[in-house]
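We emphasize that the prediction below concerns an isolated chain of 245 residues; any contacts that depend on oligomerization or on bound cofactors are therefore not represented. The input was used exactly as deposited, without trimming of termini.
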Amino acid sequence: MSAMGQEGRAIALRCAGVTKSYASAGGAVPVLRGIDLEAREGEILFLVGPSGCGKTTLITIIAGLLQRDAGDCVVLGHDQETMGKSEAATFRRDNIGFVFQAYNLIPTLTIAENVMIPLLLRGRRRSEAHQAAVAALGSVGLAAKADERPARLSGGQQQRVAIARAIVHAPRLIVCDEPTSALDHTNGQDIMRLLRGLAHEQGATLIVVTHDHRIYDYADRIAEMDDGRVVRITAPKAAAERQHA
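Result of the prediction step, given as a token string:
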């Protein structure tokens, strides 16, 4: 297959035959059963399906935070599992933003300090990193909370801080696990508009795990998963119709 996807955009992600199992008292439990998936530069791809079908496991492998058992997973032209630990960490630091469902904010740091972390890891001066962090917080409506600690924010606000941290270094790939799960409809729509704008304007690829059918229209394509496999890839309208069937 050509290295270029539809509309002349390069392939940013290619998974082929990816499998993953977890050990249990009764033996290995398969979670991914041969995932084949592609995403293009600047594309917004949603992963949907029932709980336990492997969505979060898949994006964690894509982000390089979990090793697969078999198959290939090439992200931005690189297979992180062929890299040394330091090289892989640098690759993730420079190219990938991850929005965790559990936020993963450091409680002893201010909101701005949490958002600064990706920039400080890249060697940016603290003053520059702070300025960029406040700007990123402003993009999610939280600039006024820059000096607060996470515990003083609501769950929805903490989710928006996590998104600011994921986008502050302008990554080429953004992976989101239920980014609107703690947000009301209005804030969820605002966050998806922000993420879509970043994807389209900066050419970032956005992979979103979601159960929230209200945001399906923000996807370019939707990959429907079941029992550890991608069973179909459709347009948002078709996926939404099946959701309500």
